[in-house]
Amino acid sequence: MRGIPTLFLLLLAACGETTGADVLRAVVWPIPLPASLFEATPAEREGEWDAPAADPSPSEPALALSLGSRRAVATLVQEEGERRLWRTPGGVVVATEGARVVATAGLRRVLAATRFEGADPLARLPELGEGEWRGTRVVDVMRSSTDPSRMEFGLRLDCRLRAAPPEAEDTLLVEESCRGAARFTNRFWADARSYAVFRSEQWVGEGLPPLVVEVLAAPAAPAEVITLPR
């Protein structure tokens, strides 16, 4: 089913009408997204990635995002299971599945979509232990401009995930080395007891520095469903 909206976007791109936000709407996120989600606040100055944001309330899920020297706070705007959308005041939108960044919008280089062949090894941290996991994913990337010649779909990445020696007694460092359409290393810092990732450095496109994601306030865990005996 993903191939149909992707083909539709390619046809729109040929007419110069497609943006990274369009790809995020059509390919990554199944719930309709308003155009205002990607717009900067009126206080934003042109060309500024983000203005300083107020600290989120303790009950408001939020991420601190850093891209090179640019920083912003993104708050949760939509959620469906482990798939979540986060937005900064400047209109940068990040889609995550668990701790993984799977798409972005509002940057000059857009990670349009991520598809795994099988399960994402990062979601299997409790099973990782001292071993090593391999996984393959396919990504779509594009410039924020509408030039179809700068859209690249179906880029294959072969990755190796392994737990590195812990930097602290209660912290697990997981490194992911990827090769193929791009070469990079992602890093994830997780609580050694719960395996919850609280900080990461992730590739979001060639020519961009790693996106640093720090959890300021985590979303509430889904309520456990209890089945009563009949």
Write the layout of secondary structure elements.
Elements (H helix, E strand, L loop, with lengths): L2 H12 L5 H9 L33 E6 L2 E11 L2 E5 L5 E5 L2 E6 L3 E9 L7 H4 L3 E12 L8 E17 L2 E10 L3 E8 L5 E6 L8 E7 L13
Helix pairs in contact: 1-2
Question: What do you see in this structure?
Answer:
The chain is globular and about 45 Å long. It is built from three helices and twelve strands. The chain starts with a helix and ends in a 13-residue tail after the last strand. Strand 1 and strand 2 form a beta hairpin. With 230 residues, the protein is mainly beta. It has helices at 3-14, 20-28, 125-128; strands spanning 62-67, 70-80, 83-87, 93-97, 100-105, 109-117, 132-143, 152-168, 171-180, 184-191, 197-202, 211-217. Mean pLDDT is 78; it is low at 1-5, 7-14, 42-48 and 225-230. Helix content is 11%, strand content 44%. It has a twelve-stranded antiparallel beta sheet with strand order 5-4-3-2-1-12-11-10-9-8-7-6. Helix 1 (3-14) runs antiparallel to helix 2 (20-28).
